[in-house]
Design goal:
The complex is a heterotrimer. Chain A is α/β, with parallel strands linked by helices. In chain A, about 40% of the residues lie in helices and about 15% in strands. The longest helix of chain B has about 35 residues, at about 70-100. Chain B is mostly helical. Classes of the chains: A alpha/beta, B mainly alpha, C mainly alpha.
């Protein structure tokens, strides 16, 4: 008998420990793979003929937006009953367990775009390639990229977070700062210093909490085509671009115009009112948050485009955004896809989402809608929607991989540690982060790494 | 001869078939939910697997990577700190309560016993959320109390405590919850131990003129040793694999300042779905705990035995 | 002279005891306080829960939380699930443990008896944390996830229970009685069912109480294996309410009270059995 030690034999050897166990093992192996059948919408069915009752998970605002869309949807599909539940993050965290147990997932759920690949990589989401592949051209490319798994479409982008700078007009007017002249990040920091000095240290420029440096890091990294992982999923964080971004972070922190309060907390939202903070570099959805938390500031807000790294550089990036996915345990695939298609691949619906809840569409045809050229009174009549849409398809994709949540946590830790050590030796931090990502995520180092450039 | 022996063994087994029948449910369930998982878990510690896709044999790398995992060590460290913070006060408290409740002159014994034991029968989820309210930074009862006391005695310079929001206080907050929850349980165990000590020892000691302190030192404490050891091992295991308390009260935060091993294991398993890494950690720590338990067991024998 | 000494001694002792009583009273207040807080918060609106200074008695008392809990959550179903699981698990576990315990207590001459028993005791050393993932996988493959079985079956025959029942039956059921029953034509199972079980009733009660506490309060396993809302238990439902974006504390407190009361009431009614159960278990374990 030949001795072979490949993994299957090892597994088999262990499975067969004990008679009872072997018997169980057989039962376990017996219920194996379900055949992968490609999903197609039946061409001969009219919308009225599609029936079903579907459950949708979405978070707060998004759930509200879908709810508002229901009457429109039921006009077209009168026989599909949709039940939308608001879910908190703990319910979301249970989704993976439900996927792996093949029971308990809803028919449709919303996911953060950053975490999408964590779920698509399970292979337990419905392959939508046959029905959604035709829409590839209609979505923001960098966003679409995150919805693919091995070339298959497993998620449909919903909202997108094109970044820009939200500023308070009265502060800029008072200190005579021209937002149109801010073209690079250094201009931005300089403007911040001006405001800080002219206000006698009362007004700072923006939030940059040392515990959450990674948010800014990722925005600027993506803007400049940097990566954490390359297209093959290798660790690519140790790059000249990363160094440049860290140098920018250092200049920002050293300028003294940043606020160290953590983001998305009471203090962060409270600063929307008053004079302590002048600007917010955020995704488009921040407009909705502002309207929600500080409605009385209407009209005082303006938006200018994200500063570039160098003059003439790209002035767009992204932060946040979400997708809808259909777990493959979904029983009423036709009704479910009908709803997703109606809610996302449809200009009218996407405009509704944006109009009512500031969910900026990743759906490109929506940008042709006259709504995008309407002035927004909340932003002093500025045509902010058009501004957000500018250059949106030029934003380089960030290859996220299934390990993104973990990678992001390590990135956050490393940057926080770096800043607490006085922001010295960024090369060392990147090299250590690279090592950690490789080790913890069992990945190889990308050939582009500075490690190889320096030859050590 | 051998055949005859075999036959007699078989016939004996047949004679006692009901014995095997009656204990078979345990062995069947153990095979499926105990033995197989144990072996499978060992196998998993040598592979990389997320429970969904392919399993990849990675040899010892799960174990090796564990030594480079600073969160793993932080979680062990947090476990130790939380253990040191709550086990000694809990033990002393439980022992004192048990002594007092064992005193013959005590009235309202049932009331006291019930009050101290009640925390053990309540759902941890509910209690942890109630503690979360009491620990609130701005509106919590404890900080309100601190403010009141601080106003009475300004020289104490009392400041409101960020119980659950600061990295220094998250572990003490959990320790307080644990003391509250488990003192009564240990008290009952120790009470049982105290009641098991024969009165003759004390009477003999009294005749020899031993005072209360001496009786305590030379009789009670040595005879209670097996109970202490039992409580010690239970607390050790409980602290290392503790889950509900941390999961609900702080979810391991802020940062990872209150993540104990049990929570980290759970997160690695069912948040990150790194089954291989989790199995390797579980096996390693279970072995460490086992060794510690055996060391503690060495102290078990009380001197009279 | 002597008399005086005795009286001062008595006063001193009385004084000591008074101090002890006062300390105990303070401690009782501290130990009961979280329950008191749970109780009053269940009758407060969300605003009342967070007022400073805190309201030690809600004014006005507010019953709306309970109405909302019954309307907005699945609490009746969850209560039903919790009850089913508690009853199902306790019944099955008590049956299997007492059966096994009886066998180990009374068939001491069966071949391999002591080795098997040591094996059973040895299984107590396996921490649940090690087998957590594989048990979940086994349950997935057996299609038991999201069913009552997933909670009831895995721990149904546990070594601790068998050990417990063996100790009790071993010392309280005389073999003569069994032999007499056999002579009367009682089957082996009949002996267990008609003679051993009635005698072991106190041990069953104590063990049942321990099982009940464990299963009623269980969160982790419920979190892992119960997937859909109609299967949630009370602790799981409450935990998931806690995860909402804006935590509905008033609802959590009201449903928390509902989840806590049954065991607290049962405990206060059967306090002696509870405590004796634990004590009996601890001495032998």
């Amino acid at each position: 008998m030949k001795i072979r030690t490949d993994k299957k034999n090892n597994a088999a050897a262990i499975h067969s420990c004990g008679v009872v166990v072997a018997a169980i093992g057989l039962i376990l192996c017996a219920n194996g793979l379900a055949a992968d059948e490609l999903f197609k919408m039946p061409a001969d069915k009219s919308p009225q003929e599609i029936q079903g009752k579907i459950d949708v998970w979405a978070w707060n605002i998004a759930a509200g937006s879908l709810q508002k869309l229901l009457p429109l949807f039921n006009e077209k599909y009168p026989n599909i009953k949709v039940n939308i539940s608001k879910t908190g993050w703990q319910v979301q965290s249970r989704l993976l367990l439900s996927l792996s147990a093949r029971v308990g997932a809803p028919d449709i759920t919303q996911l953060l775009v950053t975490e999408t690949q964590r779920y698509t990589s399970t292979g337990r989401l419905m392959d939508l390639t046959t029905v959604a592949g035709q829409y590839e051209k209609d979505f923001v490319p960098s966003n679409w990229q995150n919805c693919l798994h091995n070339g298959k479409v497993c998620a449909i982008p919903w909202d997108f977070g094109p970044c820009a700078i939200f500023y308070k007009r009265h502060i800029f007017n008072r200190y005579d700062i021209d937002p149109n002249k801010i073209e690079t990040w250094d201009d931005y920091i300089k403007a911040g210093k001006d405001i800080f000095e002219k206000s006698n240290g009362k007004t700072k420029m923006f939030h940059l909490p040392t515990g959450m440096l990674y948010e800014m890091f990722l925005i600027v990294l993506q803007q400049n085509g940097g990566q954490i992982f390359n297209e093959q999923g290798r660790v690519a964080v140790n790059s000249a671009i990363s160094l440049k971004v860290m140098d920018l972070l250092k200049r920002m922190l050293e300028s003294g115009v940043t606020v160290n309060d953590p983001l998305y907390t009471h203090a962060h939202y409270a600063s929307l009112r008053g004079d302590t903070v002048a600007t917010y570099p955020m995704g488009a959805w921040w407009g909705g948050t502002t309207k929600d938390y500080a409605p009385e500031t209407a009209g005082d807000w303006g938006v200018f485009r994200l500063p570039a790294m160098e003059p003439g550089g790209l002035r767009a990036s992204s932060s946040g955004g979400s997708v809808l996915v259909i777990p493959d345990q979904c029983k009423q695939k036709e009704a479910t896809w009908a709803f997703v298609e109606f809610a996302l691949c449809n200009t009218k619906a996407q405009i509704e989402h944006y109009k009512n809840f500031d969910l900026f569409p990743a759906w490109l045809p929506a940008y042709q809608d006259p709504f995008f050229d309407e002035p927004d009174p909340f932003f002093g009549g500025q045509k902010v929607r058009r501004l957000f849409a500018q250059d949106i398809e030029k934003i380089p994709p960030l290859y996220r991989t299934k390990d993104w949540p973990e990678a992001q946590a390590y990135l956050a830790q490393s940057l926080t540690g770096w800043s607490s050590r006085g922001m010295v030796q960024p090369e060392k931090m990147l090299a250590e982060l690279e090592k950690k990502l490789c080790r913890r995520l069992n990945r190889e180092i990308a050939p582009s790494s500075l490690k190889f450039a320096r030859g050590d | 001869m051998i055949a005859a022996g075999k036959r007699s063994l078989l016939s004996k087994i047949w004679q006692y078939r009901h014995f095997y029948l009656f204990i078979s449910p345990f062995f069947i369930l153990f095979a499926v939910f105990g033995f197989y998982p144990l072996v499978f878990s060992l196998y998993l510690s040598f592979v990389e697997w997320d429970g969904l896709g392919e399993r990849k044999w990675v040899g010892l790398s799960n174990f090796i990577n564990m030594f480079y995992d600073d969160i793993f060590f932080r979680s062990l460290w947090n476990t130790i700190v939380i253990g040191i913070m709550h086990i000694p006060p809990m033990f002393i408290g439980a022992f004192l309560f048990a002594l007092i409740l064992n005193a013959s002159w005590l009235k309202f014994r049932g009331l006291f016993r019930a009050a101290f034991f009640l925390p053990c029968v309540t759902p941890m989820v509910v209690i942890a959320i109630v503690f979360g309210l009491l620990y609130g930074q701005d509106t919590g009862f404890l900080n309100y109390l601190i403010a009141k006391v601080g106003a009475l005695f300004p020289w104490l310079h009392l400041k409101p405590v960020g119980w659950l929001v600061s990295e220094q206080w998250s572990k003490p907050s959990i320790a307080v919850l644990l003391v509250w929850r488990w003192t009564g349980y240990n008290m009952v165990l120790m009470l049982a131990g105290l009641q098991g000590i024969s009165q003759e020892y004390y009477e003999a000691a009294k005749i020899d003129g031993a005072n209360t302190f001496q009786q305590m030192w030379y009789i009670t404490l040595p005879l209670m040793r097996p109970i202490f050891v039992f409580c010690g091992i239970m607390s050790l295991i409980g602290t290392v694999f503790m889950f509900d308390e941390v999961f609900v009260l702080t979810a391991g935060g802020p940062g990872i300042s209150s993540t104990n091993f049990g929570l980290y294991l759970f997160n690695t398993s069912f948040n990150d779905f790194r089954f291989g890494r989790a199995s390797a950690m579980a096996y390693t720590v279970a072995l460490i705990v086992l060794i510690f338990s055996l060391v503690i067991l060495k102290f078990r024998k009380s001197p009279t035995e | 002279m002597l008399k005086k000494q005795i009286t001062t001694g008595r006063y001193k002792r009385l004084f000591q005891r008074l101090i002890i009583y006062i300390c105990l009273a303070i401690l009782v207040v501290i130990f009961i306080f979280p329950f008191y807080w749970l109780l009053i918060c269940a009758f407060k609106t969300k605003e009342q829960i967070f007022t400073i200074p805190p309201q030690f008695l809600p004014h006005p008392w507010h019953l709306g939380n309970f109405i909302r809990v019954f309307k907005e959550t699945n609490i009746i179903r969850c209560f039903f699930n919790s009850t089913i699981l508690a009853v199902g698990y306790c019944t099955l576990a008590l049956f299997l443990c007492s059966l096994g315990g009886y066998a180990f207590a009374k068939y001491t001459r069966a071949p391999g008896h002591s080795k098997l028993f040591i094996f059973v005791l040895g299984t107590m050393m396996i921490p649940g944390a090690v087998t957590l993932i594989p048990v979940f996988i086994v349950l997935c493959k057996l299609h038991m996830v999201n069913t009552y079985w997933a909670i009831i079956i895995p721990g149904a025959a546990n070594a601790f229970g068998i050990f417990w029942m063996r100790q009790y039956i071993g010392s309280n059921l005389h073999s003569d009685l069994i032999d007499a029953a056999r002579l009367d034509g009682c089957s082996e199972f009949g002996v267990y069912w008609r003679i051993a079980l009635p005698i072991a009733r106190p041990a069953l009660a104590a063990l049942g109480i321990l099982f009940l506490i464990g299963i009623w309060n269980n969160l982790m396993w419920a979190f892992i294996v119960l997937r859909t809302e109609d299967m949630y238990t009370l602790p799981l439902m409450i935990y998931l309410l806690n995860g909402e974006l804006r935590t509905p504390y008033e609802l959590i407190m009201a449903s928390g009270l509902v989840a806590t009361l049954p065991l607290v009431i049962a405990f206060l009614l059967f306090q002696k059995h509870f405590i004796q159960g634990i004590m009996a278990g601890s001495i032998k374990a």
